[in-house]
Write a structure and sequence with these properties.
By secondary structure, the protein is an alpha/beta fold. It contains six helices and eleven strands. The chain has one domain: HUPs (Rossmann fold), CATH 3.40.50.620. 25% of the residues lie in helices and 23% in strands. The structure holds flavin-adenine dinucleotide. The site of flavin-adenine dinucleotide (FAD) has 32 residues, from β4, α3, β6 and α4.
């Protein structure tokens, strides 16, 4: 059972990232780290290989400092890493990102690809599905529980009202919800061991891709602050409060 797990390096994981004048997140020269949203998927990858054997490969795409995210995943327990760095990838949109990640993953042996439902910094929530399409494997989304079978995987798929049970043959791509696993912390031993683990650093040309193949088809042309929330209305009960609450909910189309 070989598992590939995606790891994204994001600026300022515990705060608000800074937006550059070109409306892209400032990703270099600022503090950054592994996207905490990826940790449940990394944990799931480790649990799968602990149960069924095999290796976890962490795959990332990002500027040179993104190596920190790869090393963190290795210190938690992943076996090897792949980082794609290339100046032509600055501003890559979701489609270009899926193109690059798919080319890198196809160089690996894998039964399962795990990803977060969405990234914490800039996200569309579409990357995993595009990636599954490029890899030619089924996409199982919003998984909150996993059960490995003989060449199959069964998941509980989180929905608004409960969950669906979905089964698929392997290989498959799965997006992992935040509460699916309890991520473990890197130990000192893990941090030391991570330094010796193999990491391949690739450029676009190593993947048989050129700058033209990853030209973004979307760009952000403007960013505005969200409008401030209006102050709420306090309804004092003069005997008509219930009717006024019902009228308010109807107007808001809640009921
Ligand atoms: C490793 C990885 C894992 C992801 N995992 C998920 C996921 O699990 N679920 C999901 O829905 N979406 C995921 N995404 C998609 C992502 O969050 C965005 O939707 C998509 O990458 C668009 O980028 P952005 O909004 O961050 O844009 P921007 O801020 O414009 O950044 C563009 C991208 O280019 C990369 N980049 C910048 N400079 C370089 C460079 N020199 N070399 C290489 N790359 C560079 C950035 O890291 C970023 O990914 C992942 C992306 C990556 C790269």
């Amino acid at each position: 059972m070989n598992v590939v797990v995606l790891a994204k390096y994001i600026p300022n994981p515990t705060g608000t990232p800074q937006l550059g004048e070109d409306f892209l997140l400032v990703r270099e020269g600022v503090e950054g780290g592994l996207d905490p949203g990826d940790e449940p998927a990394i944990e799931a990858a480790l649990e799968m290989t602990e149960q069924a054997g095999g290796e976890v490969t962490v795959v990332s795409m990002g500027p040179a400092p993104a190596m920190e995210a790869v090393r963190k995943a290795l210190s938690i327990g992943a076996h090897k890493g792949v980082l794609i760095t290339d100046d032509a990838l600055r501003g890559a949109d979701s489609l270009a990102t899926a193109t690059v990640l798919s080319a890198a993953i196809q160089l690996q042996e894998f039964d399962v690809v795990l990803a977060a439902v969405e990234s914490t910094d800039g996200y569309t929530g579409t990357l995993p599905q595009a990636l599954a399409e490029f890899l030619g494997v089924p996409a199982l989304t919003f998984a909150r529980k996993f059960e490995l079978g003989e060449g199959t995987i069964r998941i509980e798929r989180q929905t608004e009202g409960g969950y669906q049970v979905v089964e698929s043959p392997l290989p498959a791509l799965i997006t992992v919800t935040a509460g699916a696993t309890t991520p473990r912390y890197p130990t000192l031993k893990g941090i030391m061991a991570a330094k010796q683990k193999p990491v391949e650093q690739l450029a676009l040309s190593d993947l048989g891709l050129s700058a033209d193949d990853v030209k973004p088809t979307q760009s952000v042309s403007g960013v505005e602050d969200a409008p401030e929330r209006k102050a709420g209305e306090v309804i004092e009960d003069d005997g008509s409060a219930a009717d006024r609450v019902v009228a308010f909910l109807k107007e808001a189309k809640v009921i």
